[in-house]
Design brief:
Length: 188
Amino acid sequence: MASTSDIRNGLCIKYNHDIYKIIEFLHVKPGKGPAFVRTKLKSLTTGKVLDNTFSAGHKIDDVRVETHTYQYLYAEGDQFHFMNNETFEQITLNKSILDAPDLLKEGTNVMVQINTETDLPLSVDMPASIILEVTYAEPGVKGNTATNATKQATVETGATVNVPLFINEGDKIKIDTASGSYMERVKE
């Protein structure tokens, strides 16, 4: 058993007969009344996100998890195949358990959290950013960069990302995996 003071991002808890992962939290101490913790929880079975408020000192039932590094191998429909980097065992995960499946490039290392009680994978943590090559982008018009205008670009994984007008086909860009947004152009 843990309490609200142990709440942190990535903590897995049992709540309402389901397992949730804490995505965001905020400790709030109002001037009047007791303190509380405002959280955003993501269901690891359905993928639904809900907001919940716990009063300070509330006991929460945490789930013991182990984190292992897995390498993404390939996708087969909605099934994604990963290999453990230490034991070389392969696992297959459904697309719904992944946060940003369209940004996964073959060979990318991810962190998989596994429930120690049931040995079932709970969630997949992608790296904070990923570098992908632009395979299609409309050509930018010279002199049109005075504003923060963006255009759609397709990257090598098939995902579409809004990028600045100066990005062209063949450029490598860094993408934030949490929001799926463009961060910067990468020079090699």
